[in-house]
Amino acid sequence: SGPIGYNATVNVPQQQQQQQQQTSTATSAPNYSGQVLAAIQNSMNLLNQREAAAMSNLERETASQRNTLQSNVQMGQEKLGRQRETATRQRNQGLRELSQNISNAFKAGMNRLANAGAGDSSAANMYKYALGQQEAQNRGQLLSDFNYNIGNIEMATRQLQKDYENKLSALDNWKQSQAFAIRDRFLTARND
Predict the structure, then answer these.
(1) Alpha carbons 192 and 183: distance in angstroms, whole number
(2) How far apart are CA 94 and CA 114, in angstroms?
(3) What is the rounded radius of gyration, in angstroms, for the C-alpha atoms of the chain?
(4) What pTM does this model have?
(5) Of 167, 172, 149, nearest to 86 (Cα)?
(6) Please, which pLDDT band fits residue 19 given cuts at 50, 70 and 90?
(7) CA 122/CA 182 separation, integer angstroms
(8) How far apart are CA 145 and CA 149, in angstroms?
(9) Closest CA to 167 of 58, 60, 61, 72
(10) How far apart (Å, rounded) are the C-alpha atoms in residues 130 and 134?
(11) 3 state SS of 101
(12) Could you say which DSSP state residue 121 is in?
């Protein structure tokens, strides 16, 4: 048990000390792969947040432009509605005035003919016929003007709707291209 036992006791503490040194070096050594993975994960999270923010901004911008388009088309429709009401009111007023004027002219003409002693003559019949022709012509012109104005208003209404739909479609196309560009930009950033 002399030198052998002595050496054995000396060797055991030396082995334990070496094992403890190896263990402490393994646990105290920096974990670079873990740090790299954490940094990559952090970068990916930041990219995801930025992409979400960019898409959110795109949604807000598109919604704002869509609201502007809807507001503009609504104002245009209201203006055309007022023009339609004005044209209808003018037509109705014009028809009332025409009827009143023809009635007044008939009464005045019949009074003149009666004062001249021709109230029951063929002249009275010709006068009635002439007033009827004048009324028909004036009524026809008035209704023709009304139909022309209403036709223009209807055409403007259709054009307003068509322009709105075209601008809405262009806005949707723009939004899709912007969304694609955002996704592509962040996909490229993730792959770099």
Answers:
(1) 14
(2) 30
(3) 47
(4) 0.67
(5) 149
(6) low
(7) 89
(8) 6
(9) 72
(10) 6
(11) helix
(12) S
Q: Which residue has the tokens 């245009």?
A: 76
Q: What percent of the chain has pLDDT over 70?
A: 84
The tokens for 84 are 């339609």
Confidence of residue 122 (pLDDT cuts 50, 70, 90): confident
C-alpha 177/C-alpha 172 separation (Å) is: 9
Run of H or E residues at 29 = none
Q: How many CA atoms lie within 13 A of 89 on its CB side?
A: 6
C-beta of residue 106 within 8 angstroms of C-beta of residue 131: yes
Q: For 170-181, what is the HEC assignment?
A: HHHHHHHHHHHH
Q: Is the pLDDT of residue 185 over 60?
A: yes
The amino acid sitting at 117 is G
Q: How far apart are CA 187 and CA 190, in angstroms?
A: 5
Which helix (H) or strand (E) is 77 found in, with range? helix 32-115
Q: Enter the tokens of residue 133.
A: 């022709």
